[in-house]
Amino acid sequence: MIRFDGQVAIVTGAGGGMGRAYALELARRGARVLVNDYGGGVLGQRDGSAEPAQAVVAEIRAAGGIAEANGRAVGTADAARAIVRAALDAFDRIDILVNNAGTALAGSFTIHDDDAIERHYATNLIGGHHLMRAVWPLMAVQGYGRILNISSNGALGVGGNAAYAAAKAGMIGLTLDAAIEGRPIGILVNAVMPTSYSRMIEQIPDQATVDWFRDNLAPERVAAAMAWFLSRDCSESGRIWLTGGGRLSSLVMAETGEVCEPGLDAERIAAHLPAILDESRLSVVHNQAEAGARYFAHFPWNAESQADFGPDMERG
């Protein structure tokens, strides 16, 4: 059985829904957990309250686990440092970070004001980035860390959800780049696109849809898979996982069939579109170095130059 005895986890947005399920699962398997939740609601519409985090801590303790509550809002570097300090004060170390905190901001492209957009990015993307920066040196020193960034298939686009899609797509880029830097020092970073009943799902106006999620896609099923991504047993890093209801797959990025014509111009593109858009010849691209290497076949460098270029591309 996968266990986390002796390990410490920070789970943000853990006062309900999927975050609560993540915190409970980690604690059930022996981790000491800092349960972080601002308590402002899934739309960020309420003043903060420590009660949601405290309620989850009470559940963990009632089951014999160890946890502390933290009501700090994510979104700034100062907040990230304060959350990390709270975990260190309580438990002396940090092994696991689950960047789960998020809010919803649906609506047509121009409906929201500037402040709402910036708050949304702060919670859904920037806060997670700052938390990774805050735990990174600690994990590097101990030569071990597991980070799970909660993205969403909403990043692929649904319409009327641009800010959320952009923030969750940003979590993918953050994950892929940090994974390259982290692996040599023992820090593995993955992203998950969960499909689950959650506090956000409760905002859907169609009750039949809400009921379907509740009946078929319990957050506990995502948490059960999440535990493996965060364990010592997991050697995968830089992956985008899709999971829900016991289903698990990996999302990859791929190129279609290419066309390379030295004289290619705007007038020639239409003629090549069928070949370019042919999805029967997909080729997976794992990182920037692989994407750049596709050009070497057409525009060769000498071996020494190419060797120097590859690592720089991986570092971005």
TrEMBL record:
A GO MF term: oxidoreductase activity
Superkingdom assignment:
Bacteria
Q: Which UniProt keywords apply?
A: Oxidoreductase
Tell me which InterPro entries the record gives: NAD(P)-bd_dom_sf, Peroxisomal_Beta-Oxidation, Sc_DH/Rdtase_CS, SDR_fam
> Entry's Pfam families?
adh_short (PF00106)
Similarity field: Belongs to the short-chain dehydrogenases/reductases (SDR) family.
Name the chain's protein. Answer: Short-chain dehydrogenase
In which organism is this protein found? Rhizorhabdus dicambivorans
